[in-house]
Design a protein that fits this description.
The structure is a homodimer. By secondary structure, chain A is an alpha+beta fold. The first copy, chain A, has two domains: 110 residues, 2-Layer Sandwich (Beta-Lactamase); 73 residues, no CATH class. Chain A is 38% helix and 19% strand. The first copy, chain A, is built from seven helices and five strands; from the N terminus they run ααβββββααααα. In chain A, α4 packs antiparallel against α5, α4 runs parallel beside α6 and α6 packs across α7. Chain A is extended. Chains A and B meet through β3 and α3 of A and β3, α3, α4 and α6 of B. Chain A binds a DNA duplex through α7. Chains A, B: This is Transcriptional regulator.
DNA sequence: CGACCATCTGGACTATTTGTCCAAAATAGA
DNA sequence: TCTATTTTGGACAAATAGTCCAGATGGTCG
């Protein structure tokens, strides 16, 4: 930890330390508590770190992505995935000083993996051995694409070649909901099926995924 | 502990009592252990009874339904439903004397309800509130992983930490069949769930996928 | 105990896939 | 035809997937 000195005396750290420590202690060892400086976008302090981040490091993970100042100060819990496969539940909160000005951003990352494993063990314990008949899994993501597009074409009566922009957005919204793009190589296949270029595909997707950027 | 005059001296009861008592103690208070007489179809003894049956009562629940003497002596676990809605997992075993003759039938009935409730609590803990838009398609790949691994662990009795190389290959073969690795980011999750490194994971996978390289 | 074998690990590295960007071409409309 | 919008191909940048290997680990056997 290099740049410790110049932030050691940041008044915000001692201010929020008790809360953070309490949370970290309560949820240890499965939760990491991070205090960010929203101005410099760096870590002010961290308790029980799960990644290799330390104080002064830039805020990774996009924890501060879209903390729009409209309305709520608490975000999540939403899901995050670590490189090593752990699944986190994260909540963030904007901490304000006495004047109501944003002072720091608090993030709590809880590793859900052990809980989920425990749940799996418990629910499987002494359960009948007969396996569930396997939900077909994602064999059919390909068919699914055909299906969604085909059905839309049939409903609107427009052939794939001349669907409107809106049509395509609708279809993509649907495929996105169905998590089709969580399957490797699905994107180019969809582009092909829609007879549009990969660029366009990603453009439309970005539009969908953007919270409310447009308008 | 059940004991009635006219059967007090049945030599089978003292013979099997230690095992039954041990099982009952281990799983108490959620399991009932019953010792049946396959000849008279009556209860020889019962520990930790969950229903109102007692010693000498006729064997209810059809626990002895189809214990065909061909091959295995252990049956289940299969599911049973109690009148009050509790879900039981049951195993039965034919106990044989020194001559190999059927001596008694052991049934263990485990009440799964509290476990299932606990599992529900655990899996809900800190789960993202906004997620799960559509269970339509399979986002279940994660659960699937838990399921496959969990079931293997249960069957072999080995905890995840000390599965053998073969165990892991078996599990991976299964996951591969289920196309789990066609899902983005599945690999590190599997590695994490198996408690092995990403390297090892890919090594084992390569071994599986190699046509006939090994030998 | 110590050598030995098999396997696993962390990390560096390469390959493939995903996602972004932009200037130019295509298309739709008035 | 002229203009505004959208699409396209292709160049990049970023993220994931997969490979490789030297060293760590763990179990076995004399």
């Amino acid at each position: 930890m290099g740049a410790v000195e110049n932030e050691r005396h940041d008044p915000r750290v001692p201010l929020w330390t008790p809360v953070c420590q309490a949370i970290a202690a309560l949820l240890s060892p499965y939760a990491e508590v991070v205090l960010h400086d929203p101005g410099t976008d760096r870590v002010l302090a961290i308790w029980n770190p799960m990644t290799s981040r330390g104080q002064g490091d830039p805020s990774l993970l996009g924890e501060l992505d879209d903390l729009d100042p409209s309305g709520k100060d608490v975000y999540g819990p939403y899901e995050k995935l670590l490189a090593d496969g752990r699944r986190l539940s994260s909540v963030s909160a904007i901490l304000r000083d006495a004047q109501g000005e944003p002072s720091a951003v608090l993030c709590v990352n809880l590793d859900r993996t052990p809980l989920e494993q425990a749940a799996a063990v418990l629910s499987a314990f002494a359960a009948p051995t007969v396996q569930r008949p396997q939900p077909l899994f994602e064999q059919d993501w390909f068919e699914r694409i055909q299906q969604v597009i085909g059905s839309h074409v049939r409903v609107t009566g427009r052939p794939v070649e001349r669907l409107s922009r809106e049509d395509r957005l609708t279809i993509l919204r649907r495929l996105e909901q169905d998590r089709v793009f969580a399957v490797r190589r699905a994107a180019p296949v969809v582009a092909g099926a829609l007879k549009i270029s990969r660029s366009t595909l990603y453009g439309l997707l970005a539009e969908l995924r953007a919270p409310r950027a447009k308008e």
